[in-house]
Amino acid sequence: MDNSLQIHTVQSFAEVIGDNDNLWRLLHKKEVSRLKEEVKYQDQKRNIGGVKYYTQGKVYAVHELKTSEVSFEIEYRDGLIFRYKKEQFLRKFSNISPPLSRQEILELVRRGQEVKGVQRRKAEKQVLLENLKNQFEQNFLNVDNFYHTKCTEHISFKEYQSEKLSYVQYWVKSNLNSSPGLEQTAAIGALEGHIQVVARAGSGKTSTLVNRALFLQKHCGIAPNEILLLAFNRKAVEEIRERLTLQLQSSIPHVMTFHALAYALVHPEESILFNEPDGQQNKAQVLQTVIDEYRRKPDVYEKIRVLMMANFREDWERIAWGGYDKSPEEMLRYRRSLPRIGLDGKHYKSFGEKVIANFLLEHNITYKYERNFWWDGINYYPDFTIFTGENQGIVIEYFGLEGDPDYDIMSEEKREYWQNCPNWHFVELSPTTLRFEGVEDFCALLKRCLESYGVRCDRLSEDEIWKKIKLRAIDRFTKVVEGFIQRCRKLSLTSEKLASLVDNHKCASDVEQRFLELAQRFYQSYLQHLKATGEEDFDGLMQKAATTVASGQTVFRRKSGTGDLKCLRYILIDEYQDFSELFHHLIKAIREQNSQAKFFCVGDDWQAINGFAGSDLRFYQNFAQFFQPSQKLNITTNYRSATSIVDIGNTLMHGLGTPARAHKTIFGTVEIADMGQFDPTPKEQKEHSGDSITPAILRLVDKAIKDRKNVVLLSRKNSLPWYVNYGKRTSRDGVLDNFLNLIHSYLPEESRKVVTISTAHKYKGLQNDIVIILDAVSRCYPLIHPDLMFSRVFGDSIEQVVAEERRLFYVTLTRAVEHLFIITETKNLSPFLEELKSRRRINSLDWLDYPPFVGSRQRIIVKVGNQAGRGITPTIKIRDFLKAEGYTWRAIEWSAWFCTYPAQDFSIEQYFDNAQWISQAAGIEVRFYDDLENMLAKYHVDRGQYIAVI
Fold first, then answer.
1. Would you call 397 helix, strand, or coil by DSSP?
2. What's the pLDDT band for 304 if we cut at 50, 70, 90?
3. For 734-748, b where at least 16 C-beta lie within 10 A, e where not — what string?
4. For residues 702 and 700, what is the distance between their CA atoms, to the nearest angstrom?
């Protein structure tokens, strides 16, 4: 064998293994030769010694000591064993028998080196981890830099992030008594560069924002005057400030709205025009004044009249289709949602219905739109009803979906139904006539049909028509112009810039062209008013603030304290998806004056629903372009809603971004409540004549109250797509408030507070156990506003509107915590709901599971008191009679004698006939209540006679 492949001597072995002392054990039981035969020995314990001669010995044992010293025990032929230290062994011994394989030893050496390297790196890593922890504790702001310069060789970025998250999570829990999730923790602890946080619904973005500010101040040592938190409304500011104050007492960072910052920078001497959500409306008043003054000019007034008359008659569907850059198939999904408002201001389902409604108004024919009829237990709403007498007249149906098999079957059933109604004449019209013969011939056909049934069709003059619609048309025009002016202000447009924008815009119709010509004049007049009066609006204030900062004036002064934008190190912005051009200009100016400031912008592109107010999602979508260097973080965990509710939100927004994840394990309930399947009982039909939505909602609400749950009713608009029979319960409140009052009127006093109502926009950021979406129908989701055609010049399109309406529907869906009811109608489904049903199975509510609302009207409460101005004598005279009949005296609100009667078969007339005290009564007032304290009737009794007051 080649001697170079073997190790023959202990000296060669030592050279090969180097400092790998653990390999000396390989010599165990090997024969080793001595360099000198003489062995001197001495054993002091046994007091013996001498000299022996050996040529070789066997390695009996190899010892590795804790001191890293190696020793060998050599056994000689006579059984004597001597111990040698490594240095002695190398001097006294030479050959190894049998020799060792050099290759095997080298492999063992290599492995040993690897082990030592691992151990060394592990030790170094442990030291670095300890140093990192010290950095986390003592110098968190520098920890990222420390990691990148010192630790990357031994600690992976993933490991580093894990250690960092663990520390931040521990700190927040220990110091703020909060338990953030890992995604929230990552956002709190990310301090390098600019940060965009995508925070889905229910993910706790406000707590993340606040905890980050607290972490910066309490742990990282950032002074409160070096931190600025900006929000878009005062309610959000108050919530943030309250949470910060709880932890920091008086020494909190700057917290304010963008407008408050602008005011603190500019300190304008002129008065600021603005509209409070539910309060002062001085900006609207000024806009109204400017518009009123201008439209009083005869030429302007005439142009408005011509414009609005043409607007109400225009076929916006044709215009929308003509200007849409997508395929007709894609547009078809939203066809039913396009704006179709008639001369009377009502919304219609199709252009054909709008033409019919306009014809009837122009010919001064009174009609009801979708007046209900009960047909075999179904609440049937024919398009138009013209009464010619009591329970007789003409019904007009526009069969707009002819050609659809199911629709055609239903149409034939309607024909047969009216043929069997001798007091009614039936007129059916087809879109085919409208499509191929035009509006004029379509109206001529309608006229012939009506005249054949004895209805006079004398067309009003244009002036007479204008007189009928003038107030509504002027009000509508005013609101459109107000919105137009505010959009111009949001975009910081001068009169010249607006003129250039209009000149380069291709109008879709003559109506749009006329409007833009007028709108420019009104906008110029508004700007001149501001200049003449010295007044300013918030949009102008924002523009001035940006200019002020750009000029180098960065100090802002408020009652709560003074600050300097140049001193800021961290700026945190809430609801960044609502950013606009005005806010961008101000932030850009701040960054030019203070390049060190790091921005933390949290928001949710799925909840960007304020485009109508000037928000522009491009600032959110292109964050990385505006802020460099930057990183995007996601907080996807929904801590609010049950799994099924999170899932339906994700399904609606599929393909539009990172989906949310449910934190809760409960599945929850999502149900479609189809009003087409709702079959009211005879009692419900009688109590809510023609009204299906009220008894349906009462059923759902009643079940929720019994389950001790809170409920919110959400509506897309300030109106409802259903007929509501208010009886005598209407007030001057808005439609939604009236509807809530109606629902409340059936509920016990203590239960009313658990049922609320709101528009979808106003309920953003809020939640409830149970959410009932009142209007998941085509003309609500999406709501394509008829004024869209007047804002196309700003780049608005149907596509953008539909996208924002999708986001609004997402907001509405995700307000629910446990249970979500989606009220709709099979034949009028929202396109979004149709899409959801095509993508996943959604349970349909079985109305049999929700029994009719019985309510508490089991008793009638009778209160007998004194008429106003008659003193206390009247009841004193009859109190003995009242006591004998079981009445008791109560001095609550209205002092009176009370008695309760069973509601069943109760009759007011019979009550008075049986009352023993009535013959003695004078100056008495009797009130009848149900047991929900709703007053049913009020009577005055004098000399035995009773007269109804209510």
1. strand
2. confident
3. ebbebbbbbbbbbbe
4. 5
The CA distance from 11 to 99, in Å, is: 12
In angstroms, the first-to-last Cα distance of the chain is 125
User: In this predicted model, what pLDDT tens digit does every residue of 840-859 receive, in sequence order?
Assistant: 999 999 998 998 887 656 77
| Strand blocks (E) in 592-687 | 598-603, 630-635, 637-638, 661-662, 669-674
Place of tokens 């240095």: 87
DSSP state at residue 215: I
Q: Where are the alpha helices (DSSP H) in 346-395?
A: 351-362
Does residue 662 contact residue 710 with C-beta atoms inside 8 Å? no
Say which DSSP state 505 is in.
-
| DSSP element (H, E) containing 386 | strand 384-389
Round to whole Å and give the CA distance between 413 and 181. Answer: 59
Instruction: Identify each DSSP E strand in 787-911 by its residue range.
Output: 816-824, 843-844, 859-866, 888-890, 896-902
Amino acid at 505: H
DSSP states of 30-46 as a string? -EEEESSSEEEEEETTT
The answer, yes or no, to whether residue 321 has pLDDT greater than 60, is no
Please give the single-letter amino acid code of residue 261: L
DSSP 151: I
Q: Over range 371-392, report the average pLDDT.
A: 81
CA angle 615, 619, 622 (to 5 degrees): 150
pTM above 0.85, yes or no: no
Give residue 45's identity as a one-letter amino acid code: K
Beta carbons of 370 and 351 less than 8 angstroms apart = no
Q: How far is CA 777 from CA 349, 481, 610, 661, 773, in A?
A: 11, 29, 21, 28, 10
- Rounded to 10 deg, the angle between the 234-248 and 205-214 helix axes is 40
C-alpha gyration radius of the chain: 43
d(CA 497, CA 503): 10
Kindly indicate the confidence band of residue 324, based on its pLDDT and cuts at 50, 70 and 90.
very low
Contact, 258 vs 232, CB < 8 A?
Answer: yes
Is-cis flag, bond preceding 98, omega within 30? Answer: yes
Write down the H helix ranges in 296-350: 298-313, 316-322, 328-332
- Cβ atoms of 219 and 171 closer than 8 Å: yes
